[in-house]
Amino acid sequence: MEFAEKLITLRKSRELTQEQLAEQLNVSRQSISKWENGQVIPEVEKIVELSKVFDVTVDYLLKPSEIDELSVKTEILEQQQKQMLVREQKRTQISKNIMYSIGIYLIFFAVYFIGHFYFEIWNASVILAELLIATAIVVFVWVRSFSDKS
């Protein structure tokens, strides 16, 4: 694997565009394109910066090796797997929160109907207070679930 291939692989593994990488290195997008096409090799300072951005050694960037290619592909797969796991955990948490919210509002409606039909409470301020309490509980559940994960 040559420098240009490694650069493309590393950039894509970090889900960076050429423009985003260019901004980090303080160069033009065209420079990144030329590096990736193998037309030009960057200056030593930029190679050092690249090694820091991608958390690899300068040797890795400059020396061709098939073992490096496998390790980069493995790293890419591991990062993609971690991202998928995080997305799935967020989806699961959101689903749980939706179910909790539905449950809380169902309890609110049950309390409302019990108060209305059995105790004949038909006061708009009581209904509003119950709704606000239910909404506050729902907000608390959502905020707490996402603040715990951070």
Characterise this structure.
- This protein is mainly alpha-helical and 150 residues long.
- Helices cover 81% and strands 0% of the residues.
- It has seven helices and no strands.
- The chain has helices at residues 3-13, 18-25, 29-37, 44-54, 58-62, 66-117, 124-149.
- Helix 6 (66-117) packs antiparallel against helix 7 (124-149).
Number of helices: 7
Number of strands: 0
Helical content (DSSP H or I, runs of 4+):
over 70%
How would you sum up the global shape? rod-shaped
Largest sheet: none
Task: Please supply descriptive tags for the structure shown above.
150 residues, 7 helices, mainly alpha
Short description:
With 150 residues, the protein is an all-alpha fold.
How are the SSEs ordered, and which strands pair?
Blueprint: H1 3-13, H2 18-25, H3 29-37, H4 44-54, H5 58-62, H6 66-117, H7 124-149
